[in-house]
Amino acid sequence: MRDWNTADLIHFYTALRDAHGLQHWWPADTAFETIIGAILAQNVSWRGARQAVCALQEADLMDADILYQAGQDTIAPLIRSSRYYNQKARKIMTFLSWFLETCDGDVSRMASLPTDQVREELLNLSGFGPETVDSILLYALEKPVFVVDAYTRRIGSRQGWFEDDASYDQMQEFFMNRLSPDVPLYNDYHAQIVYLGNKLCKKTPLCSICPVRDTGSTRCQYARPE
Questions:
Q1: pLDDT in tens for each of the 226 residues of the chain?
Q2: Which domains does the chain have, with CATH numbers?
Q3: Gap between the Cα atoms of 177 and 115, Å rounded
Q4: Which of 36, 90, 156, 177 is most solvent-facing, going by the fewest CB within 10 Å?
Q5: Cα dihedral sign for 221, 223, 224, 226?
Q6: Is the pTM of this model over 0.85?
């Protein structure tokens, strides 16, 4: 397996950005909304998660204290579009309990805590996995933590970045060991990977229109001469 270096990864990213433009993630009005959106986006399309966020906004619940006081029974039916809405309502309440106790409901106070501390404490909350936690760290708190997901695994294994059975930590370390801790870069790089995996590098890939098919750095198993 070829060892990709920093220049290779930047070239790969630049090709995606030039083809698809900046993705402008995460679409939200506030950092708190981004956190709630990250919880709601688990195992569902962004459209479904966005509908749930809008429902909470329309109910005037997009505030930590108000949302916590509303409680799980009020939250659950409002977020039905996000799937697994009862579980996600519990997760929101779990997060809010920690957030209000530890950070007094203040996102800036949460962001001021050491990254490793916040990450560990969030991972210890019931139902919070590394993808959700790292999305909160990167997109809401602007911490330089690279987010990886199923699309990263699919594209990475095809490109030879890592094996198909690589752990979350191994995939994350692949990027963070080669890219400087740059929040805007991490932000858009992950978004570009999601776009590529969702639109082109599917289970059956659309290689003929892939913007990285013919880049000098690519080693995709599908990118063979016609």
A1: 568 999 999 999 999 999 999 999 988 999 999 999 999 999 998 899 999 999 999 999 999 999 999 999 999 999 999 999 999 999 999 999 999 999 999 999 999 999 999 999 999 999 999 999 999 999 999 999 999 999 999 999 999 999 999 999 999 999 999 999 999 999 999 999 999 999 999 999 999 999 998 765 566 776 654 4
A2: 6-24+147-209 (1.10.1670), 31-140 (1.10.340.30)
A3: 17
A4: 177
A5: positive
A6: yes
